[in-house]
Design brief:
12 copies of one chain form a homododecamer. By secondary structure, chain A is an alpha+beta fold. The first copy, chain A, has one helix spanning about 20-30; strands at about 5-15, 35-50, 50-65. Helix content of chain A is about 20%, strand content about 55%.
Chain lengths: ~70, ~70, ~70, ~70, ~70, ~70, ~70, ~70, ~70, ~70, ~70, ~70
């Protein structure tokens, strides 16, 4: 790692698991950001419906290299 | 969301994964609490036995609407 | 639990999930530490490559009993 | 203050202000809990609708004395 | 809530109150961001002038849905 | 530890020491809760009167197993 | 801002709102401190009496310039 | 509690226990501050000498009422 | 300070010192952001290579005024 | 203090008090580590049995000087 | 370290580096406080002007022994 | 990064600057640990003597790869 990096905060969701929510967040973010290098988990929450987990919601910060 | 909500802190366990521990906590809590709306992950720990993860233990706070 | 315990901080990795990264960390640590009793999740991060999660990296603290 | 106290975590809401959300939480909690003595603000969030704050949501912990 | 969300960090100001500073932040952010759904209070500070509060400064994180 | 656990937050007091305040909190909580398994210290405060500590006040979270 | 600053921690109270409690704290502190420049909110609590908020209590840190 | 309060941060020490260190801090602070009302434990550390605890060092914040 | 501000999170790097890493982050960010007013240090890390610090990595949040 | 120090994380236990748990941790650690200089309290928990505190468990970090 | 200590919170500034800001804070504080023994870094911020760091601002807590 | 990593907590010191203290910690740790890959700053403190900073003390966690 060298140069300058920017961090972006996104929330990914998944009905399946925490890890799927993270994967979804990263893959969606990749549609508008380039050179993503790492992520940090910031918060883990979820929505409950009918007495069951309806959705995992994971907030991550994504670090990506600024292009010059 | 509107009205007043209460939060309950529970620990769910699972030998399989963090996400299963959360699902178990929510489904068990549903046996005594109604109108559960969301959860927040507070702590993630686990028990080790014979050099392997024997159990994931996830503490979550569950928010549910107070009925009137 | 009684007696004295020591804590060790390790980072486990997995391309699959957060829970797999924890299992890998525990099983690797078991090669050099004995009497492991519990773990606490400290940090969850990961590496991104080609717009996808390449690796989950979970830092855990492992508590083990000191032998006398 | 002496004796033993219990803490309850509730979320109050108000379209007006943070302070109103707290007042609502306390007055609603008073319908089912007695001997409330103090509160601590834990989290402040809110819902946005049509580019404006639709609702302040304040999580407080309420301390109340256990009766014997 | 479902799909992917992004978070934006802004500081709103008001000479009147903490709640007004939040409302100002949200309404200003609405000029350049669409689909705002919720906010989280991150920090509360202010400027003092002539021995009185001249300005409340509240940092909030705004969550908004990414359009596809 | 296995199954599901609930956490309760209580404040114990003692004019003698932090540890006595915890013991008092646990023994009082035992009058209305069953299957208590562990506690976690959350906050340590106290009241001062006549330039001396009049009372230690310790907030603990008590984990107890839900019976089925 | 330049030179050296000192921080003072005070608790302001108000029966009306969080913001009033801050204003009271600042105006009272101004009776004994000069060159106050900013404040940071540290803690928000309050007293409950007769099932209603009797008093908001806000702890702030006040930064003021040291005169030479 | 009403009016305005100031907080003071002091470190008390004791070779005996955490609670003694707090008592010492409060009683020493009472020599220069009046109207002390409560304390909050901020940090607990200590010095080790000859493989034994030589001294407990407890940092507390003391709240006291400003006289007018 | 008045009006509305936005915060941006960037990571600056330097082989020399923490302070150089911050200066680099600010000067790079200035190529795409205008009206930068202040920064807050969020995290300090670094890369090690050949048993020496190869690079300091400092994450800062930069506050800048939104132009209208 | 000068030179380089290492920190070790241990959990001490005692049926009597928090302070005893710390003393036990330090004296046990002294059997395998030399030049211990200070400790920092990291976490305070305990085990409950038969509605009473069965054991205080205090996690401390011990700083000791590396010998050359 | 033994006896009782007080902590003072000050903000030092420097156009050069974080470390210079700390040195300035300590040397300025020494003009009005005696027996300073240690400092703890609490916050690191700074002012930006013309797209460059104009000033590092470091908040430290200074511990000093109370004389009797 | 892949495989398993361990973290070590050390305190480096320097009379010159925070960054020098980190460099010293890393280079000293390299005498007994191999494959060091990164560090994280955990705490920044220092000793004061004669109204000046006598020594910067920086606690870092060093991550290193376990060899197999």
């Amino acid at each position: 790692m060298s140069g300058i990096y920017k961090k972006l905060e996104v929330v990914g969701t998944s009905p399946v698991s925490l890890s799927e929510a993270i994967k979804n967040a990263v893959s969606e973010a990749g549609k508008s950001v380039r050179h993503m290098a790492w992520f940090e988990v910031v918060e883990q929450r979820g929505r409950i419906s009918d007495d069951a987990v309806a959705e995992f919601q994971v907030t991550i910060r994504i670090g990506f290299k600024l292009e010059r």
